[in-house]
Amino acid sequence: MDNSLKKIRDRLRITLILYTFSEPVQIVENAENERVFYTEIKIQALDFLLRYPDFLSCELMDLMLNDSSIDKSEIRSIIKEIYKNEEPILRVDEMQKFFYGAYESIDDVILFLKSVQFINFESKRRSDLQTYDKTYYITKRCIQQVENNLLNITSVKWYYDRCQLIKKYFNQFNGSDLKKRQYKYKEYNVPYTTLIKNLNEQVRYDFYKHFNEELL
Can you tell me the distance from the alpha carbon of 177 to that of 185, in angstroms, rounded to the nearest whole number? Predict the structure, then answer.
């Protein structure tokens, strides 16, 4: 992928993750900060589900099996649509495996979003000077730009709709929980810095097993 295009896509994805999954600020210390999102770990885990429609499909079926309140016909329709639109080929954006799972540095994206006044952020430092417990504040400007401009762009709307889908089924999990779920799959457990493999064969097998229907 062209590097300039990748930069744009990365910025859009992270912006929409922060916009969709953030919550209203309870204690207002900065009038510009409208919403808040906690931890980079959760950003990385949600980004992985956006970038791997096949893993998302497997995770949806896994949730369905363990939660009787989930509408099976809805999960079936979602997965069929994902594969009908060839998302595991056209939409996949591979990530590398690092020490704590799928990871890609978002430092440049966060600094860019800060520079255009979309976010503010803060973090703590350990004794070894490594940062942790990162908190991201989404500004009024970001919310206005997303709602008044970005969501009117068809290609951006796809990411927003997918974020809404992920939020509906996975918002109850924190970042660490999402990472643990991803480790269930052998394709995720590849050597350090190796690209994480797809789960398409597993998706097709599970889809037939649960719905008695071939996934085309």
Answer: 14
Label residue 198 exposed, middle or buried (CB < 10 Å: 0-12, 13-18, 19+).
middle
The b/e string for 89-101 (b: 16+ C-beta within 10 A; e otherwise) is: eebbbebebeeeb
Instruction: Give the start-to-end residue ranges of the domains of the chain.
Output: 3-52+94-197
| pLDDT more than 70, % of the chain | 95
pLDDT digits (tens, 9 = 90+) for 152-208: 999 999 999 999 999 999 999 999 999 999 999 999 989 888 999 999 999 999 999
152, exposed or middle or buried, with CB in 10 Å at 0-12, 13-18, 19+? exposed
Q: pLDDT (tens digit, 9 = 90+) per residue, 100-145? A: 789 999 999 999 999 999 999 997 765 555 666 799 999 999 999 9
